[in-house]
Amino acid sequence: MFTGLFFFQSLHFFIDFVYTNYMDIWVIVDTHFGHIKLIDEGYRVPENDSRIVNQLRQFPEDSVLIHLGDVCIGNDRGIHKHYIQPLQTTKILVRGNHDHKSNTWYLNNGWDFVCRQFRDKLFGADIVFSHEAIPSDGTFDLNIHGHNHDLTKGHRTYTYKFSPNHLLLAIETNLNYSPVTLKNIVQKMWKK
User: Fold this and answer.
1) In terms of residue numbers, what domain contains 132?
2) Strand, helix or coil for residue 101
3) Which strands form 25-28's sheet, in the order they lie side by side?
């Protein structure tokens, strides 16, 4: 695990370092810790926060967590102090539409790398990691994203059609409130 602020010349170098030195790369999205409205409207189960945090705490130190944004709603300092900072894994945050603090704030509150999106070739796929889906322009194999939540409840609408190059991770449905390994995403969840 990295301690303090950790800067690299490029994200590609960081990911290469992580990929070659760590066993598991985990991905999670839209945890929305502290977001009572999602529970009240039936989009989340009441034990949402504890269920997710308990799983994240099981990660070994030599693993990596990529969070695709929307960490929490309100009480940022408290949630980061109690949920994010104690995690013993390397943590990458791809900021979402509810992550309003500065990159420096997130780096000072438990994250090892912070960005809006990044792209790299992992497990044989050219992957773009983002919070919201990005238009498919034919230059990447897979865009792993969140933001749209549980499609069965009509929670979001799309501004363009998704392609086979997009994989929506919805914590409420296809993730069952659990992080998933990047290897599993590429080899089992994504249909080439």
Assistant:
1) 11-189
2) coil
3) 113-115, 90-94, 64-67, 25-28, 180-181
Residue 17 is predicted with a pLDDT of 61
Measure Cα distances from 155 to 46, 68, 85, 147, 170 in Å: 18, 18, 30, 10, 11
pLDDT of 11 > 90? The answer is no
Q: Cα 114 from chain centroid?
A: 11
Nearest-5° angle of CA 155, CA 66, CA 170? Answer: 20
Residue 113: CATH number of its domain: 3.60.21.10
3-state secondary structure 20-56: HHCCCEEEECCCCECCHHHHHCCCCCCCHHHHHHHHH
C-alpha–C-alpha distance, residues 156 and 38, integer Å:
13
3, amino acid identity:
T
For the record, the structure tokens of 11 come out as: 């994200």
Residue 85 lies in a domain: yes
What is the reported pTM?
Answer: 0.85
Q: Which residue has the tokens 């190059």?
A: 165
